Amino acid sequence: MGKGENMLASTLFTYTLTHLANKDKVRFYYALKGRDGKGGVIEQYKIEQLAKGVLLVTRKQEEEVEEFLKYWKCKYTKRKVQLEQ
């Protein structure tokens, strides 16, 4: 196998919720993870949550996740990453 084969282009988002009131943090997590049998954006876009405040997203879902974080006025950073499959 040559270098670069089986690489998956992804984006790593890190974000903070310090600007949100506690009730809004709860609403954010429901929107992120889902509630009452309704899937959140993690399920909808097949996102991997690596840790609290860290999401791994495929490049094709990057724009949707960025819009989600902007909607909630989250401060975030995004980094392009290549993952071995």
Short description:
With 85 residues, the protein is of the alpha+beta class. It has helices at 22-33, 41-44, 62-71, and strands at residues 7-16, 34-35, 38-39, 48-51, 54-58, 75-84.
Describe the structure.
This protein is an alpha+beta fold. The protein has one domain (10-79): Alpha-Beta Plaits (2-Layer Sandwich), CATH 3.30.70. It is 31% helix and 39% strand. It is built from three helices and six strands. It has helices spanning 22-33, 41-44, 62-71; strands spanning 7-16, 34-35, 38-39, 48-51, 54-58, 75-84. It has a four-stranded antiparallel sheet, with helices on one face. It has a two-stranded antiparallel ribbon with strand order 2-3. A hairpin with a 2-residue loop joins strand 4 (48-51) and strand 5 (54-58). The longest helix has 12 residues, at 22-33. It is globular. The mean pLDDT is 91.
Which features does this protein show?
85 residues; alpha+beta; two-stranded antiparallel ribbon; globular
